[in-house]
Amino acid sequence: MEFRHEIINFPKKLPIKFFLHRIGNVSRHWHQSLELIVVMKGDADINVGNVSYRLGAGDLILINSNEVHELHSEDATMVALQIKLELLKEVVVDIKKMYFDCNTVKANDPGSFRNIKRIVAQILQHNINASEFVDLKNAALVYELIYELCTHFSSDEPEADLQPKEGMDRLRRILDYVNSHYSEPISLQEVAKQEFLSVPYLSKYFKKKLGLPFSDYLKDLRLHYAVNDLLNESLTIDKIAAKNGFPNVRSFVTAFGEKYGELPSIWRKKHAEEVSGSIEATKEKSVNYYQDEPHSYHEEISRFIENNLGQPSLAPPEKVLQRFSTALRIDVTRQTGKLNHRFKNFIGVSRVKEVLYAEVQEALRTAQREIGFKYIKMHGLLDDELMVYDEDAEGRPLFNFRLIDSAFDFLLSVGLKPLVQFSFMPAKLASDLSKTVFYTNMNTSPPKDMAKWNRLVEALTLHLIGRYGMEEVRSWLFCVWNEPSSSNLLFGFKQDETFFSLYKNTYETVKNIDASLSFGGPAAFSTYNKSEDWLFSFLAFSKDNDCLPDFITIHYYDIDLIAQNDQLSMDKQLNLSPVTDSFKQFIDRLQLRLREAELASLPVYLTEWNSTVSHKDLMSDTCFKSSYVIKNIAENYDRLESFGYWLLTDLHEENRLPSQVFHGGLGLFTYNNIKKPAYHAFCFLNKLGNYLVDRGDGYFITKQDNRYQILLYNYHHYDDIYANGISISISHKERYSHFPGKAKREFRLELAPLVGSFEIRHSIVNRDYGSAYDNALKLGQAAELSLGDIEYLKRISIPRIEKEISASSETLTVHAVLQPFEIRLIEVSERPASTLEP
Fold first, then answer.
1. Which regions of 289-416 does DSSP assign to beta strands (E)?
2. Quick check: helix, strand or coil at residue 194?
């Protein structure tokens, strides 16, 4: 089994790190820190050295420094506290000889662990809604924990477990080398040479330290990585064998059968559902597209704290710090550039069919009246639910575009132009009827007959031109498929060449009708820390085959694929970007590669964008999302051709619709058309002027004629715990707990030169004004809402308006103090002379 050293990154000045997880399997590893594991729910099998223990709810075990251990469980909820002994050297004389026998399973007196559990409960309690001084409390509690361990659980280390420092350093070097070269044809002789040891000595040393021969360790290590690769259907069995260091396919199949009891191909088929619906980063790393929400440990933690402190887990009163911004002097005569307001170029609705729903039409009318988007992105133009394609008894195609006409008629009536995305596959054309996704079972297999597919594309394109006129249709955008860079289990195909052929055929079919029709590609999927390799392999193909798209469409979600592939964490949680400028990093990265490929002139339409792919991230209903929208668009204004927020409304059919109104959906509207704070963010953006005056951290200032628009935002990023897909305190009634150091922010802006009398109008969205979710909480609950409640929330969940009149002989001072997550639009306009006081 794999056996590797874990490097733990501790906070700079604290000797403790704690985390929670629901484990599946965590492979054999060791580290120099102490680790206290407490099971809060379920059962877990923990192997320490060569001894196994079954821990149930309420049990705990202390893993000593350098002890090899592994964990297995179906669904145990655990808290782990890791303690860095080096930071205790000033108070403990010989920390390297410290050994503790602390294991409830072995103990005869359960009461002797009462203080340990009390300290753990206190650590958890103080880190829920943590104050600015929580690190002081953590430091005090970890020292108390060490005191308790030293006083009651000190023990002599078993003779068999003693591992001198020199031996551990050697073992660490050996394992680091093997882990770095496992995919190569390495041997025991090669490793022995690296360490200046004889082969017989190293063989005995290795078996003694790890409990298995070198060859078995190397084989298990290779199998560990090969198993992960089996979940990637784009890799053949022989490629997986070669990629992971097996000399040939036969040796891989034999080793796999010995360990797992079946052929790799059978195992792959049985476990395909584990990544069903995943999106793979360049066909290698994947994200759970169906993830409901970050794992919430709120109930388990509250119960554990109550059981061990004798009182419920009550959050302390929220303390908001005041943070003063440096006063800024703004030269209003300065214009740094003309703005194109490209954030309005796209909005998204999940499926074309949904455009026919009354609620979606109402949301679209409202958005067009108050914001005014140009294009709309939708899936499912060719889905069977629109009854587009059929065949007669002889297999001849039959077309029916009436429902498409109804949807497009409405869109054009509200001023929206469609992105005509040819997707997905009608059943009569599908090569695999079982390849479906989402609640509505959209078929995402390639066509079984490319000629018939081309006829469908041609017939629909000609129909649209005939119905709406060539001039109108030339102003639309066309493309084919959605996220072909994703796994074969979602939208992608087993071979990239299959999509490339589909793209080329569709491109040529449309261009043969009219070369001036704008055809783009390929709706590639991107995330934080992910390369755009797949996109550029597609662009290289299109360049070489004379079918270069007229524009690029791309999707971006602020999720972290690298964190999901951490080898010690087998949770399938959804990891979010841990940094605040990941959106900017993505655009920088994309534009650099386009320049390097000499394709910088291609327009780039971002047609899907959000902080998460989850339709149940509870923060999406809150003011966090409105400040997130303002921050990212303001910092990257007009850098792409569009910033298509995904999506307009929670009323969509990718997942089964939850009964709870505020369930964390991605929409700007709830499914019954209550405006969320993020919707107001787009309304504020829509009121910006056409010329940029100045911008910086937290502010964006524009000018239109003699009026000025000042957009302010007080953004706070979630903590690392939430970024890692874990919630220790979030619930349907508490959604702002994972933001450490929340602070007010004061802005004092001096606008000059301005002379005269001015009206200063403030539009404010924060937790008190404009947040439907926070208003719903004030009704006493946020779950079941009556029709009267819904109408009431629609009326009151609007921005607060404040006005002031100020005279200026040279400098006009604008002052505002923003609450955490607040967004504020300040409009400054000169009052006509006739309205001035005598």
1. 295-296, 321-324, 328-331, 337-338, 346-351, 375-379, 389-391, 397-399
2. helix
pLDDT tens digits, 396-413: 999 999 999 999 999 999
| CA separation for the pair 241, 252 (Å, rounded) | 6
> In this predicted structure, which of 48-62, 553-567, 680-694 has the lowest mean pLDDT?
553-567
| 3-state helix vs strand vs coil in the chain, percent to 5 | 35, 25, 40
- Written as six digits, the tokens of 408 are 């497009």
Active-site residues, by number, are: 483, 608
pLDDT of 5 strictly over 60:
no
Both tokens assigned to 495: 């071979």
- Residue 741, φ and ψ in degrees, nearest 5: 65, 35
d(CA 673, CA 560): 31
How far apart, in whole angstroms, are the C-alpha atoms of residue 60 and residue 55?
A: 7
- Quick one: which of 363, 435, 424 has its CA closest to 665? 363
138 token code pair: 């953590």
More confident residue, 599 or 272: 599
SS (H, E, C) 244-302: CCCCCHHHHHHHHHHHHCCCHHHHHHHCHHHHCCEEEECCCEEEECCCCCCEECHHHHH
Return the amino acid letter for 698: G
Q: Which helix (DSSP H) or strand (DSSP E) does residue 691 occupy? A: strand 691-696
Residues 6+ apart with CB under 8 A from 358: none
Look at residue 557 in the predicted model and tell me its pLDDT. Answer: 94
pLDDT of residue 719: 82
Given the structure tokens 């609620």, which residue do they identify? 359
Residue 213 CA to residue 221 CA, distance in Å, equals 12
